[in-house]
Write a structure and sequence with these properties.
It is built from 7 helices and 7 strands, in the order αβαβααββααβαββ. The protein is 36% helix and 29% strand. With 171 residues, it is of the alpha/beta class. The chain has one domain: Vaccinia Virus protein VP39 (Rossmann fold), CATH 3.40.50. It is globular and about 40 Å long. A 7-stranded mixed sheet has the order 3-2-1-4-5-7-6, sandwiched between helices. This is Trans-aconitate methyltransferase. Keywords: Methyltransferase, Transferase. One of its GO terms (molecular function) is methyltransferase activity.
Length: 171
Amino acid sequence: MVVQTIPPRIRWAVEMMDIQPADHVLEIGCGPGAGAELICSRLQSGKLFAIDRSESGVDRTKRRNAKYVDAGRLTVRQIDLATLRVPVKRLTKVFAFNVNLFWVRDCADEVALLHERVLPGGAVYLFYEANRSELVPTMVQKTSAALSGAGFRVSVVEQKAPAVVGIIGKR
């Protein structure tokens, strides 16, 4: 079996979330499953529900994290956030990395869904790799506006190397 590495930017983002053993987490855009692997390794009684619009992203996440799927700690579905019906009553954390939805178009319905499902004290963590620095102010401004418009308290964090910006919305 090939050992898959976890990029430093994903490690940093997951560390920022401070995953607790009982957290219930939604990952939007699970891609190859690196974030899911790190999150699930920190969960005990908690669960991760990972979604991706891409069939290949779902397949890759399931293969990479088969032990967590088998243990019932991870559920992976091919679905769009707009049509998602979260299978848990409440989430403690929501995680997305390089999901452009939150800054390229109107996402009021999706952010309202998140606000409805995240417990008070919970948070939405949206991270972007800042490989085009001129886009960072727009990413931060539009994502922050979407989150604050739905009632989240917003803060911004940055990592210099690799360059990653995180927009955090606390409920």
